[in-house]
Design goal:
By secondary structure, this protein is α+β, with helices and mostly antiparallel strands. About 40% of the residues lie in helices and about 15% in strands. It has two domains: about 200 residues, 3-Layer(aba) Sandwich (D-Maltodextrin-Binding Protein, domain 2); about 230 residues, 3-Layer(aba) Sandwich (D-Maltodextrin-Binding Protein, domain 2), CATH 3.40.190. The chain has 20 helices and 18 strands. Strands 8, 13, 14, 15, 17 and 18 form a six-stranded mixed β-sheet that branches. A hairpin with a 2-residue loop joins strand 11 and strand 12.
C-alpha cells in the first residue's frame, strides 16, 4: 500500500459484491486470516476488536442522532468495531486536524466542511477513497464524479471527500399564521412581483416596531441576492463565476439582485433591518409568515422551534418557474487515520456513513437532498414526501438549480463584505460590488481554484443541467 493509505482490491471485495459484507466482517473478526494493508504494501494483522476515533463537527442535532442511534446501529452489525465520537467546533476543526496530522495522531474519520477540502488534501490529511468502496458516477452522478476526482501533490486523481447531499434555499412558511390570515400554502404567489405585494399585505407594523413579518430575510441577504441573480439571468449568466478565475459581482445582474434584496426593507417593508433581529429567530418565534432560508434550518425547526407548524415551498422566481437559484454541497465524511491497523474498519464505517442506512437519518436533520441517487425515489425524499420535504426534492434537481461547487473561506470572506457595507452602512451598491469584485478576482489570480463550477463549466457540460447531472 502506498503512503496515502489506499486499500488493496482484496480488502474491499465486499463492496463490489464478490464477497458479502457479512463475510468480510467475519474475516475481520477471525483471529488469523483478518488482514489490512500496511504502509509498505505487505499485509498486517488486524486486531480482533478495533476502536475508531471520529471527529464530528459540533452540530448538536446531527451528533445526538449519530451518537444515540447511528453508532449503536452500526456496532450491532459490526461487533468487532467500536466508534468513539469527539465533537469539535467547526471553526477549530481544520487547524486541529493539521496539528494532529503533524503529531501523528489524527483521528480515524472526520466530518469536514467543503471549504476545508482543498487545504486538507494538499496537506495529506485526507486519504483517497478506494475505488472499491463506492462507484461515484453510478451512485452520485456525473457532475459529482467529475468535480471531486482531483490530483493532489502529483498523485493519481482520486476522491478524498464526497458530498452527503446538496442544500438550496426554500421558502419556509408558518402554516398556523397562514390559516389565521385566511390563506393556505397554495395561495402563496410563485412570481416575485405578486409575492412581494402579498407579503407586504400580510406584514404588520405597530409604529416603528415590526409585529409580523410577511417575508423575513435579515441575515440571509447574502443568500437571497445571488439566488435572485439566477432568477433574472438564468443558469449561465446568473452564475456569479463566469470562469474559475473570474467572479462577476458588480455587473447589472449583481447590482439589480442586491437592489431587490434591499427593496424588501426599503420599499416593501416586509422585514426590518433597523431592529437587527435575525430572520430565523423571527420565524422560529412565530412572528414571520414566510422565511427565505437554506434548508440546513430544517433540523433546527424540528428540534428547537417545535411549537411552529411549518412547511416549505419552492422559492418565488421572476416568472414562477425554475431556475430556483443555487444549490451547494454538504461535504462530508473523510478518512484521516494514520493507524494502518485501523484502515479496514475505518473504511467499513465510512461506507456506513455514506449509505442509505445513515443518510436517511442525517439528510432530514441536515436539510440536504441525498447525493445517493438511489435515495431520490425513496418516499421520504421524493416530491411526494410532504410539506417539509417536497420542495427540497424539487429545488435540488440538477435541472432546477445550479451547483456552483464551493469556494475557499478566504474568497467567501471577500464576497461577504458586500452584506454589511450595503445593508448596515448604506454604502452605494455599485461601488461596493465593484470594489469587492476586484478584490475577489485578485485573490483568484493568486490562488487558482478547482472547486468552483462556473458558467463556462456548465456551457462545456450542458448535461449537468439535466436529470443525469
Amino acid at each position: 500500500m502506498n503512503s496515502r493509505g489506499r486499500l488493496s482490491r482484496r480488502e474491499f471485495l465486499a463492496f463490489t459484491g464478490t464477497v458479502t459484507a457479512g463475510a468480510l466482517l467475519a474475516a475481520c473478526a477471525a483471529p488469523s486470516p483478518a488482514t489490512a494493508p500496511s504502509s509498505g504494501g505487505e499485509v498486517a494483522a488486524v486486531p480482533e476488536t478495533t476502536t475508531l476515533v471520529a471527529w464530528f463537527t459540533d452540530r448538536r442535532t446531527i451528533n445526538v442522532m449519530t451518537e444515540e442511534e447511528a453508532i449503536p446501529d452500526f456496532q450491532a452489525s459490526n461487533p468487532n468495531i467500536s466508534v468513539e465520537m469527539q465533537f469539535v467546533p467547526e471553526s477549530e476543526l481544520q487547524q486541529k486536524l493539521l496539528t494532529a496530522k503533524a503529531a501523528g495522531n489524527a483521528p480515524d474519520l472526520s466530518s469536514i466542511d467543503e471549504t476545508f477540502l482543498d487545504t486538507l488534501t494538499k496537506q495529506d490529511v485526507l486519504l483517497p477513497i478506494p475505488e472499491e468502496v463506492i462507484d461515484v458516477k453510478a451512485e452520485m452522478g456525473e457532475l459529482t464524479a467529475q468535480l471531486y476526482k482531483i490530483s493532489v501533490n502529483n498523485a493519481p486523481p482520486a476522491y478524498y471527500g464526497l458530498p452527503n447531499g446538496v442544500f438550496s434555499a426554500s421558502l419556509f412558511y408558518n402554516a398556523g399564521l397562514l390559516d389565521e390570515l385566511g390563506y393556505t400554502p397554495d395561495d402563496i404567489p410563485t412570481r416575485w412581483d405578486d409575492f412581494m405585494i402579498w407579503a407586504s399585505d400580510v406584514t404588520e407594523w405597530e409604529g416603528d416596531t415590526l409585529k409580523r413579518s410577511g417575508f423575513a430575510i435579515f441575515g440571509n441577504e447574502g443568500s437571497l441576492a445571488p439566488d435572485v441573480r439566477y432568477h433574472m439571468g438564468g443558469p449561465l449568466d446568473g452564475n456569479q463565476f463566469a470562469t474559475k478565475d473570474h467572479v462577476r459581482l458588480g455587473d447589472d445582474l449583481g447590482v439589480n439582485s442586491w437592489k431587490f434584496a434591499m427593496d424588501v426593507y426599503d420599499v416593501h417593508k416586509t422585514d426590518s433591518k433597523a431592529e437587527g433581529l435575525g430572520s430565523r429567530e423571527r420565524f422560529g418565534f412565530g412572528n414571520a409568515v414566510t422565511l427565505y432560508q437554506w434548508t440546513w434550518f430544517n433540523g433546527v425547526m424540528d428540534t428547537t422551534y417545535t411549537d411552529i407548524d411549518w412547511g416549505l415551498k419552492n422559492p418565488p422566481t421572476v416568472d414562477g418557474n425554475p431556475i430556483y437559484g443555487r444549490r451547494g454541497p454538504d461535504v462530508g465524511f473523510t478518512v484521516t487515520s494514520q493507524n494502518t491497523d485501523n484502515l479496514s474498519a475505518a473504511w467499513t464505517f465510512y461506507r456506513y456513513l455514506v449509505s442509505p442506512a445513515y443518510l436517511s437519518k442525517y439528510c432530514k436533520l441536515r436539510g440536504v437532498q441525498p447525493s445517493l441517487k438511489s435515495m431520490w425515489d425513496d418516499p421520504d425524499f421524493s416530491e411526494n414526501a410532504g410539506p417539509r420535504w417536497a420542495a427540497v426534492a424539487i429545488n435540488n434537481r440538477p435541472e432546477n438549480t445550479v451547483d456552483e461547487g464551493f469556494s475557499p473561506r478566504e474568497l467567501g470572506d471577500i464576497i461577504g463584505r458586500s452584506l454589511p457595507s450595503i445593508r448596515d452602512e448604506g454604502d452605494d451598491i455599485v461601488s461596493v460590488l465593484q470594489t469587492n469584485e476586484a478584490a475577489a478576482n485578485e485573490f483568484l489570480a493568486n490562488n487558482p481554484q478547482w472547486s468552483m463550477i462556473s458558467a463556462a463549466d456548465y456551457e462545456a457540460n450542458p448535461q449537468w443541467l439535466t436529470s443525469i447531472g
